[in-house]
């Protein structure tokens, strides 16, 4: 993931050898790097596309999700889907060839635009959440909430404008030029993209996430003061412990996302800078691995956020509960007393899913322990 476009070698995604000819300065065959890039990016792209479609359908089929936050997140998922679809085309950008002007610019500019739009939408989602939590009483007055269509238009129009600057004339294309990233993206453009937009956007999202956790910690302390004043010197209540545990999970999740997703992305950006400078220590294999892993890890962030939101997956959990209820009804009609261990496991699972959907947000996903799970199966058997 060398950069916003996810293509090896720079922010435009092309490998960092100065010639653009297959292979690198280390002499690694171009076909080997293409196969490596395909096997790294192909499965990851399929996973990103399917996961985004899964979450999008869950949001669209939930009639309760029609607020500003849902529209921002839907736009993010669509941008992430396009970014995932661009990952398998990374090998085509690693070599200099005789493509024409229009095809060459499309192959380089389109992936760059997809990843820039993805990052802009992710920044908008973080900003909307930051305003909602930090200023809950004034949130409805902010333009982000009042002018959602305009905000969504900006998150797509500004990346498109920046990505099209090479098409508008900021390039090194000549009458006899071959298709390579050196001809499409000037060095100044690449540095501006990396250090003027990508790195500041990541730092801004990290700052807003930290501020959200700080506000949550302050509210947690206020709640604990109220609870302790009511209990008059008694020990910590179960509610206090649950709130502390939930806050600790949020901190751990944020730290894990930053380490697993953003650290490889930032590392790939700096490897891209070395490749732009024709650093001899960067071979093709290193460049391809950092590009594919970095771009893919960044594109997984919306999937993690979507799967971690209960309302975004409520439709699928309800569908699973209905399916289990139907299977349970058929099993009870054909064999009313399941004596096998498999029957007990299936019955317990269906019962636990039904109970969790009835309890809703008051029952976390891991509320039923293994003992309760099999007790539910035994009750169903009886």
From TrEMBL:
Q: Name one GO molecular function term.
A: G protein-coupled bile acid receptor activity
Please state the protein's primary subcellular location. Answer: membrane
**Positions in coiled-coil regions:** none
Q: Which CDD domains match?
A: 7tmA_GPBAR1
**Location of the region described as Disordered in the Swiss-Prot/TrEMBL record:** 1-26
How does the protein's chain sit in the membrane according to the entry?
Multi-pass membrane protein
Superkingdom field: Eukaryota
Spell out the GO cellular component terms annotated for this protein, sorted alphabetically and separated by semicolons: plasma membrane
Q: Which residues cross the membrane?
A: 38-61, 68-90, 105-127, 147-168, 188-208, 251-273, 285-307
Q: What is the annotated localization of this protein?
A: Cell membrane
Tell me which residues make up the G-protein coupled receptors family 1 profile domain: 51-305
Which keywords does the record carry?
Answer: Cell membrane, Disulfide bond, G-protein coupled receptor, Glycoprotein, Membrane, Receptor, Transducer, Transmembrane, Transmembrane helix
What's a Pfam family in this record? 7tm_1
UniProt protein name: G-protein coupled bile acid receptor 1
Question: What does the record give as the organism's lineage?
Answer: Eukaryota, Metazoa, Chordata, Craniata, Vertebrata
């Amino acid at each position: 993931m060398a950069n916003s476009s996810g293509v090896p070698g720079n922010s435009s995604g092309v490998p960092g050898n100065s010639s653009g000819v297959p292979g690198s300065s280390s002499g690694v065959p171009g076909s080997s790097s293409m196969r490596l890039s395909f096997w790294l990016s192909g499965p990851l792209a399929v996973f990103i596309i399917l996961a985004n479609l899964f979450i999008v359908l869950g949001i669209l089929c939930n009639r309760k999700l029609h607020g500003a936050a849902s529209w921002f997140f839907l736009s993010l998922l669509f941008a992430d889907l396009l970014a995932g679809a661009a990952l398998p085309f990374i090998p085509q950008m690693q070599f200099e060839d005789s493509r024409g002007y229009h095809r060459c610019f499309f192959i380089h500019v389109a992936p760059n635009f997809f990843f820039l739009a993805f990052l802009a939408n992710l920044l908008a989602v973080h900003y909307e959440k930051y305003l909602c939590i930090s200023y809950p009483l004034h949130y409805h007055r902010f333009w982000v909430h009042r002018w959602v269509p305009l905000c969504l238009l900006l998150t797509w129009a500004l990346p498109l404008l920046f990505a099209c600057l090479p098409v508008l004339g900021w390039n090194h294309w000549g009458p006899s030029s071959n298709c390579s990233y050196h001809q499409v993206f000037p060095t100044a453009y690449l540095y501006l993209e990396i250090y003027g937009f990508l790195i500041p956007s990541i730092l801004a999202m990290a700052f807003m996430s930290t501020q959200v956790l700080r506000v949550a910690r302050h509210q947690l302390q206020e709640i604990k003061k109220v609870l302790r004043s009511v209990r008059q010197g008694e020990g910590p209540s179960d509610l206090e412990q649950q709130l502390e545990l939930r806050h600790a999970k949020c901190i751990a999740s944020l730290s894990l996302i930053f380490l697993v997703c953003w650290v490889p992305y930032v590392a790939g950006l700096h490897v891209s800078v070395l490749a732009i400078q024709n650093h001899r220590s960067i071979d093709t294999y290193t460049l391809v691995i950092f590009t594919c892993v970095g771009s893919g890890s960044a594109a997984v962030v919306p999937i993690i956020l979507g799967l971690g939101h209960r309302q975004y997956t409520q439709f699928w959990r309800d569908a699973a509960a209905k399916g289990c209820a139907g299977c349970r009804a058929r099993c009870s009609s054909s064999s009313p007393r399941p004596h096998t261990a498999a029957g007990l496991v299936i019955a317990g699972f269906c019962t636990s899913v039904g109970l969790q959907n009835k309890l809703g947000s008051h029952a976390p996903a891991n509320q039923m322990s293994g003992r309760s799970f099999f007790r539910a199966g035994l009750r169903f058997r009886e």
